[in-house]
Amino acid sequence: MIEFFCFDGLNYSLSASLGGSLATQASEQKKKHEITDKEEMDEEAQMHEEPERPLKRLRLRNQNDHVSPSFGLGETSSRGPPKVEEADLPETCPEQRSQDMTQSPQPLVRNKGKQPVLPKPVSIQDSFEPSQPGAADRTEPFATRTESDLVPPPVRLTGKGKEPLLPQIAPGISVRSPHAVRLKEPMGDTGIVLSPKPHVHDSRALIKPKDEPFTDDILQSEVPSAVIHGEPLSIENSSSANGSIGASDGPEHIVSQSVDGEARNDGVLASSNERRTDCKLANNVDGNWEPTHANKSQETIMPAVDLLKQSNALDALGARSLPHVPVDVAESQIPRLPSSSNGTDDCTQTDKNTIENIGEIDEEKEQNSLEHANPHSLLVQQPDDIKSLHDANDIAKGQERVVISLVNEVNNECPPSFHYIPKNAVFQNAYVNFSLARIGENCCSICLGDCLSSSTPCACANETGGDFAYTLEGLVKDEFLEECISMNRDPQKHCHFYCKECPLERSKNDDIIEPCKGHLVRKFIKECWWKCGCSKQCGNRVVQRGISCNLQVFMTPGGKGWGLRTLEDLPKGAFVCEYVGEILTNAELFERVSKSPSSEEHAYPVLLDADWGSEGVLKDEEALCLDATHYGNVARFINHRCFDSNLVEIPVEVETPDHHYYHLAFFTSRKVQALEELTWDYGIDFDDHDHPVKAFKCRCGSKFCRNIKRSSSVLCMVSVHPTTSSIARQALDCRGRTSPVKVLQAFFADRQCTLPTGNYSPADSFIFVPVTTCHCRWQFYSAGGDLQLRTVTQIESEL
Ligand SMILES: C[S@@+](CC[C@H](N)C(=O)[O-])C[C@H]1O[C@@H](n2cnc3c(N)ncnc32)[C@H](O)[C@@H]1O
């Protein structure tokens, strides 16, 4: 007999029968089964598809009273589902900077009269890399070379000869303490405080979550998210001389997109398997966008590429004749958006100047030409007449090396309105202008051929940490990758930098400038580039070559909106894509967000703070971020997944010596299968209510979801019978709450409710179990035998 109690939102009820006999039975048998339970749980865990379980001894920072391991909502870091016990943490960072270690972060009173800092003039000494006719891009990203000795490169903790940074393993202080206010002081040269901080806040991602019911996706295959790569050299007023991305930027490789799966002439292997399948397409053969496929099963969502290949859609599209521009030229530029572009409404209007400046194809012309080429029209016109024209066959409009299709078999939602740009573009004040003379500083100018084949690391490899980050197959080396993954998953184990006066806090325009919350000091990859002596086929050039795997934008079935998935199997460490967007100063971003009718529209900014520690006191125009809301590439579709995402972001320096601007590239953190969604841990601090960007309600489905306590609808409160299934015990483990009473108390406390008394026995084992299909109501039931997880509907129908 199953007794269950349904909760509708917060209107819950408990049955008096819930505790009684079950509770007693449970408590009596609990110890008896403790050991076997543990064994079963471990077995169960191994069966899960998650790449790996979090560290065994994880603990919520804000749950010190809980003995059992848990993951979760750390206060001190935006990351951090699983928190590592102190015993697991290094006492100090391997490399420390001996600076002011004692100074605690202090809020500063804003200097209202501060003068804005103007961008520095640009010095362009030479503009373009000599063209290399016939030099095709290095092809197969994951090709056939044999990886030789893997020498793990040391972690790069400092920039350019700077002293190593300090670890931040610190006891907390109240970041918001009003008592710590002091007047803003003139900054010295460094303005750096490297003391351990209490509040380790990974402010890299500026996305902020919000409460929302969460759908457990444990049973749903997870897809990794895309990556971002960039590559520019910023040249002010880069319009004519330096070329714009425009119509001339582009589809150099479009013709190389093999329809037959053979290696393309640019060296990128076309996807194999998946593309050959006779699959059902979300788009019709003509490539028309058909937003009428609601409620189809997920199984029907298949890549549309094959059919597109089989049809003449590509030809119609444009294998279309976009002008060719040498890649080198395109790579040399960071387009600058006009200052008139405020970013808040660009996506709803076609500003010709803007388009010209960023080298975007004039969409109006493009539409005409496409309609002419394909009478069935491959464009998506949003219903509200917003000028957002997306090509379902290739959302990148031929600007990437591969086509990126778009499908929706879930609902009628149209793709968001934005301009696709394959490379970062400067918005306004962001200072990303570098002279080529300076760019050459760290290049391996005396190298020849392929640097990776050299027995000694080149100058670029030395910048990376003494060794190449890539294998001969073009994958990020395992040790380097694992270090980057660890930084995301356990940021508190790694070094953080604390600004004396944080540009982030400064941007908030509050009267009181809060102390810096800390910036994770990340590992960089330095790729070879123009000024290097090596060839264009050098293996130390991966991100700058752009996307080479087959990706697809699709509507997720789990309420996360559009997502990105791979159409081919990807090995671990493979480059997926770069996060491309507008390069903004943080001040500009804050202003943009504040002017936006809904901050939720700005869900894509990423802070480029991976090496702020080596930059001294950052000026406003040097504190940069990327915003893909209005201008971006395919990475803007990568959804967030807490903790165990299959993508990891790595800062990649290509052309710039200054680390306040770099490319953010996504690599697979594990092997990813075709059709898996690609996900990335945004690093959201779901408890940061002070964030300018409105948070979303996380539906990542990870059992380590940091937003899980707010994702009430995916949780079920289940009584754990002694013989309950191991999945329930696993959930208990994840929550880190061994005491059933504490679980219940926490559950109701989270919802500003008090735990009803008398309805259960404190000795009973009630836990939360994520149930994928439980969306609207809570089920609360006990079972006389083995635990059975069912939806309310299922149970109701049985009764
Ligand atoms: C970078 S965009 C990803 C693409 C987006 N899904 C779309 O439809 O355009 C980030 C936004 O996607 C949604 N999103 C991403 N990850 C999510 C998650 N785990 N749960 C719920 N919503 C998510 C949020 O609205 C967020 O602001």
TrEMBL record:
Keyword Cytoplasm assigned: no
Residue ranges of every copy of the SET domain listed in the record: 549-683
Pfam families for this protein: Pre-SET, SET
Biased composition (Basic and acidic residues): 28-38, 45-55
GO cellular component: chromosome; nucleus
SMART domains: PreSET, SET
CDD domains noted in UniProt: SET_SETDB-like
UniProt keyword list: Chromosome, Metal-binding, Nucleus, Transferase, Zinc
Low complexity bias locations: 234-248
Chief subcellular location: nucleus
Ranges where the Pre-SET domain occurs: 439-546
Cellular location(s): Chromosome; Nucleus
Stretches the record annotates as Disordered: 22-173, 234-254
Molecular functions per Gene Ontology: histone methyltransferase activity; zinc ion binding
Biased composition (Polar residues): 95-106
Name of the protein in its database record: SET domain-containing protein
Native source species: Camellia sinensis
